[in-house]
Model the fold of this input.
Amino acid sequence: MPPKVLMMVDILKHEGKPAFVIMPYDEYQAMIEKLEDLEDSDAIREFRAALRRGEEELIPAEVVDRLLTDNTVKVWREYRGMSQKALSEKTGISEAMISQIESGKKQGSLKTNAKIAQALNLTVDDIIE
Done:
């Protein structure tokens, strides 16, 4: 159990009930920092639990760097270890169309992008640049 922190506070009442607290600013700042640390700890626990449930995925830095500069469909396809042919077979989209999307010659319709995203285990937002 963490040690109790004694703070210098004044409690102001309104209609006989505690309504406001006055405290030194440095103690207020320390309290806010501790609350933010607790929120960060909760977020980390939630993320780790989501990883264990398979709801989140850790992406290597090299892949993230490529996503910032290269065609997202190509990067994700290669990261998933798929050839254009395999992606074509899984989506029913021609290899030529996939090649054109990856080269930037075509964008693909929403329906096409949805098929690609599903085949790559992504959301459409993950692949639309």
Residues 25-52 form the longest helix (28 residues). The beta strands are 10-14, 17-22. The two ends are 49 Å apart (CA to CA). The chain has a mean pLDDT of 92.
